[in-house]
Write a structure and sequence with these properties.
42% of the residues lie in helices and 15% in strands. The protein is an alpha/beta fold.
């Protein structure tokens, strides 16, 4: 991607990850970025996707389009999660090959790894044990995407790369309490509790699971850097290499929001995977490390929430 006018298609540009990749590309001077809304292009329709890619023939393709959500959404809309993700990614990967696009990056999720695998999680732990049941459909779809990329490379000589980010947050996040991830849900809960003058706010689960969080603009920087450097190696974890308990996370959110009550844990709600910490040594070997600390990132995310989501 040395030529700043090279044609780049970002699938899912309105989502948190896709919009961050577009921001990063534009910041680095790339001026030929192709995007399509869902109304303009339904990625679950194979003929539409192939026709679009054959017509546009981008030089590079970032697959950030996905149906995503937290524990509740993943566990409730299981059929939608596996079907829509399988269709979107399969159509894009196959369509890219048919259109002669050799450089593609597929964005996955750390939930692809076994529920109880050793920590920190190395890339070669994939498919070594059972998945977390609450998000198994989404994880299976993402695993299929990884294997599509791997096997197209083996059969056709393409350069399709899969990167696995840890839990993401930041501008463009989803703050709907019914289907959001844990960090944006905590931000909204703490903010609304503060406005009501509550003395406490409720957090799902026991507070003991440990999670790693990556500011989405750090992920975008990694994706663009890897594509720019021509990385076409195996599956690559992208994260901070540092995790916190949900209790510690809730406390940091309280501090950023300025809520001075106490936390109440609802242990009737599911915890999900006990711990998910990625081994990011392979990404470090490629010269990339996260730059935004969790405290700094939560403060930035709260400002984005106030600007775009608070009522």
């Amino acid at each position: 991607m040395k030529n700043k006018s090279t044609k780049i298609y970002v699938a899912g540009h309105r989502g948190m990850v896709g919009s961050a990749i577009v921001r990063r590309l534009r910041a680095e001077g790339f001026d030929h970025i192709i995007t399509r809304t869902h109304a303009e292009l339904d990625l679950t329709r194979q003929t539409e996707v192939e026709s679009f890619l054959m017509s546009e023939k981008p030089d590079y393709l970032f697959i950030a389009a996905a149906k995503v959500g937290g524990i509740h959404a993943n566990n409730t809309y299981r059929g939608d999660f596996i079907y829509q993700n399988l269709m979107m990614q399969s159509n894009l990967i196959q369509g890219a090959y048919a259109a002669g696009i050799h450089d593609l990056m597929f964005l996955g999720s750390s939930c692809i790894y076994p529920r109880d695998c050793p920590q920190p999680i190395k890339e070669d732990y994939l498919l070594t044990g059972p998945l977390e049941q609450t998000n198994e459909p989404y994880a299976l779809a993402k695993i299929a995407g990884i294997k599509l990329c791997e096997n197209f490379n083996l059969q056709y000589g393409t350069r399709y790369t899969s990167v696995m980010p840890t839990n993401l947050y930041g501008p463009g996040d989803n703050y709907n309490l019914q289907n959001s991830h844990v960090l944006p849900a905590l931000i909204r809960k703490a903010h609304e509790a503060k406005l009501r003058g509550d003395t406490e706010y409720v957090v799902w689960g026991s507070g003991t699971p440990m999670r790693e969080f990556l500011y989405v603009d750090d992920l975008a920087a990694a994706c663009v850097q890897l594509m720019d450097a021509g990385y076409h190696g195996p599956l690559l974890n992208i994260g901070t290499g540092v995790d916190v308990t949900i209790r510690e996370l809730a406390e940091q959110v309280m501090q950023a929001v300025g809520f001075e009550g106490r936390i109440v844990f609802d242990s009737s709600k599911p915890d999900g995977t006990p711990r998910k910490l990625l081994d990011v040594s392979a990404a470090a070997a490629q010269g990339w490390r996260a730059k935004v600390s969790l405290a700094e990132g939560i403060a930035l995310a709260y400002q984005d929430f106030l600007a775009h989501h608070a009522v």
